[in-house]
Amino acid sequence: MKIRSGGHDYEGLSYVSDVPFFIVDMFNFHSINVSIEDESAWVEVGATLGEVYYRIAEKSNVHGFPAGVCPTVGVGGHFSGGGYGNMMRKYGLTVDNIDDAKLIDVHGRILDRKSMGKDLFWAITGGGGVSYGVILSYKIKLVRVPPKVTVFRVQRFYDQNALDLAYLWQRRADKWDNDLFMRMIIDVVNSTTRTPKKTIRVSFFTLFLGDVNRLLSLLNGSFPELGLERKDCIEMTWVESVLYYTSFPNGTRVEALLSRVPQSLTYLKRKSDYLQKPMSKEGLEFIFKKMIELQTPTSLTFNPYGGRMSEISPSAKPFPHRAGNIAKIQYATNWNEAGVEAANHYLNLTRVLYDYMTPFVSKSPRLAFLNYRDLDIGITHNGKLSYFEGKVYGIKYFKKENFNRLVKIKTKVDPENFFRNEQSIPVYPAGRK
Asked: FAD-binding PCMH-type domain: which residues (predicted)?
C-alpha cells in the first residue's frame, strides 16, 4: 500500500513500486479550518502548502506558518517528515509548531494525540507518517509575522567576488538576527559577456521579517561585502513573499496559491548534506572548478541554520539536525530529456558532485534530510534483514538515538510491518524488543 498526499516525494515512493500495489490517495482530504482567535488551524493532509497559506492570509495579514516555499507540496509528507521553510531560524520547523494530529492505525482506529500517546505523536512529527499509519490531519500553531516583510535576490558571478562572498556567508549566515533567512545558491551559468563562457553564479535569496530600513542597517553592518542597496529590496506582505520565493512574476495575485498544478514538470534528482564547518576558499574553489568541469545542471542550495534551530533539542522531535549545523545543502538536478540514458547521465553527474563534496560535510555518519528522500543512501527489502538495512539510511536521517526510538515505537504499534516502503522505519528482529 502506498499513501500519497501531494505526490512530491523525490523518489516517488508514494506512487511507484517494483511490485503490485495500490494507492491510498489523500488528495481530496484538503479542508483547512483556521482559528485566528487561538492562533491555530486544523489542516487535512491532502491540502497543499499554498492552500494553507492562502487560508491563513484570508483571515490575517500578521499570521503565517513556517513551512516550505513550494505551494503545490502536500501537507502530509511535508509535515510528517520535518518540512522547513524560510522562517525556520525564527520559528523552527513545521513539526516544532504542531499541537495535535489524527491518524488511522493498523487496527483501523482513528487516534488523536491523547489516544495515540506521546511516543507515536513524537514519531509522526518528523519521523515520517507512512511508517505508522494513515495520517488524516494536523493541528498547527500559527506564528506571528509583520504586516510587511522584505525580500531580495542578489546575484554575483565569479568575477564579481562570488568566491569571497560564499566564503563569508558560511561564517555569518547562521549567526545573524533570527528575523533574517538568507539562502545561498551556487550554480553554473552560460555567459555571453564573460570569458570563459561557463561561469559560477552565487545567488543570495532572502526573506527578512521586517522593513527595508532595518534590513539595510543590519546587512550594511554585518555583510557590507554584499553591497546590498535599497533598489535590490522589495517590501510586501508575508503571503506575497511566498509567491516571490516560488518565482511567480511580481504582481501575481495570491489566488495563484490555490492552484494544485505545479509551475513546471521536469525529471529531477535531489540529494542532501549538512555543512558543520565552513569550507575554505580552496575548498570552495575546488567545488566551483568541478561544477564547471562536469557541466552539470546541479545547483547547490545552502539553507542557513542557527537561531531557533539551535535552541531545540535534537531529541525533541525525530528530526535531529539542530545545533552544530551551519546549513543544510540541497543538490538539485533537473532535466527535460526523456529516457533511461538521459536519466543515468544526470544521476551520475549528481552523484559525482556529491562525492566531491565528501571532505566538506558531516561525517560518521554523513547525515541526510528525510524530506529530500534519496534511495542512494540505502533501502530496505522489508524482509528478515529489514532492521539492519533500515539502520543504514535511518541513522543518516535521524541519528542513532532517534532512529532506535523510532524502531521501538514502530515495533510496538505495527509489529507486523504493515505500513512499509523502500525507506520506512523497520521493526526489531524477532525476539528483540
From this structure: 1-145
